[in-house]
Amino acid sequence: MRLKTINSWLGIRAEVLSRIYDRTWKPGDLIPKEIDLAFEFGCSRTTVNRALRELAEAGTLERRRKSGTRVSLNPANKATLKIPLIKNEVNKIGKTYGYKLIQRKLCLPPDKIKNKMRINSGIKILHILALHTANDLPFVIEDRWINQHVLPESEKQNFKEHSANEWLVLNAPYTHGTISFSAINSSAENAHLLSIKSGAAVFEIERNTFDKENAITNVCLTYERGYRMLTTF
Amino acid sequence: MRLKTINSWLGIRAEVLSRIYDRTWKPGDLIPKEIDLAFEFGCSRTTVNRALRELAEAGTLERRRKSGTRVSLNPANKATLKIPLIKNEVNKIGKTYGYKLIQRKLCLPPDKIKNKMRINSGIKILHILALHTANDLPFVIEDRWINQHVLPESEKQNFKEHSANEWLVLNAPYTHGTISFSAINSSAENAHLLSIKSGAAVFEIERNTFDKENAITNVCLTYERGYRMLTTF
DNA sequence: AGCTGGTATATGTATGAACATATTAATAAG
DNA sequence: CTTATTAATATGTTCATACATATACCAGCT
Predict the structure, then answer these.
(1) Does at least one atom of strand D sit less than 7 Å from the CB of A44?
(2) In chain A, whose CA is at the least distance from the CA of B232?
(3) D10 C1' closest Cα residue
(4) Which residues make Cβ contacts (< 8 Å) with residue A163, sequence separation at least 6?
(5) What structural domains and CATH numbers belong to chain A?
(6) pLDDT (tens digit, 9 = 90+) per residue, A178-190?
(7) Which strand C nucleotides have any atom less than 7 A from protein CB atoms?
(8) CA separation (Å) from B55 to B41, B114, B210?
(9) pLDDT single digits (tens) A20-65
(10) How far is the CA of A27 from the C1' of D16 (A)?
């Protein structure tokens, strides 16, 4: 019955959220169909569709053809994490970024890496160990393997001035990847590099990127003690 | 000059990704404007817009009015984490979910919680400690504070059968929240609950949810040893 | 130089109409 | 009673068109 004219998709999204919030539409409820909402809000179905689609992508709504749109039972608490370049991450917290290459050489990867990157036995690949610092204090250990057979250019890079992290972003397009977060007790070597006690809990991010079926790189980032990864929703 | 007819937004998104991938368009490059792409792909600008908008949301492209669209310099490695109900998380790995309430009482929160939830001194709020199990083995410790002044219904719940986690999803609408991930050395109490050695590194997720300016709940989830949070991109 | 205002331009949004597609519900065949 | 077929329907997508809006660029002024 054409009560309001919130005729922008942002306005409609806000109104729908508000109705979910004030429990006019409760979790699990079916909400009116697009045409009816369009009439009520005094806009076209296209606009309603845009608003509802965004909410469905965010996990707030669930939509099915013919059935209709309902409020999600578990609002999928989706958090989107931005994984920035370490350099940017350090700059963002107002500290001075530093980088130091510790090791760079071709060697046989351990079984774990061999499996993850699908490297045959006896094949040497590029291993890089580096330290990123914030105000000259250890910030992150970058322990990286690069498949130089897939990425021949990488063999010409010495990674002395700039981290592999940065070079890869510009020069290694990927199709997909995996990422995992975990907590581990730091090894003696890592503890030494980070100037912490051996065994101290540290936050680790492991990332694998692929070019179709070929693994490009595997990196394990070990963060300074007390590091927190934050986001909002 | 109308070479192909990939005239669906998904097709166009794929084609654009492919061109970025094969380095026809390199990071930082300006790509043709919507109208030109529409002509080339033999579709309307609306469709191109949809494809490019999605890619911009994903962080692959950066768009500015008048300037145009360019390939992101740092493809914002955005990973979207789905934070499911613990029950669903356990079921997903094919294990039997269990829940045990350890403690539930009104008490004075420590300073840390008081600050985060903006609770005045001397005010008691609801504290819940519970253990979630997978195949009868400890999986997650849920250490939660609920502001029962904002959420009066919560005081009537005993949380014996179902976790606060589940009740809140259905009964506590929120406007926004924060989430943080970290690694810590487990305390003696948590180690005991999780049947691990005190000091072992454990993964922690801390979440705060708000109803406008009022904090609804603060929860700290401490996961079993070796837990990994995974996602793909 | 620096500031001001105007203009051109690429993206952003809205519309109504049309057709596509998934899925439910009704119906007919076995 | 069960299963295959068909119709109905809500969302999904595309289109041509129009207008809105941010902003880069330029001209003219101080």
Answers:
(1) no
(2) A178
(3) A66
(4) A86, A87, A99, A130, A132, A142
(5) 9-71 (1.10.10.10), 86-223 (3.40.1410.10)
(6) 999 999 999 999 9
(7) 8-18, 21-24
(8) 17, 41, 30
(9) 989 999 999 999 999 999 999 999 999 999 999 999 999 999 999 9
(10) 39
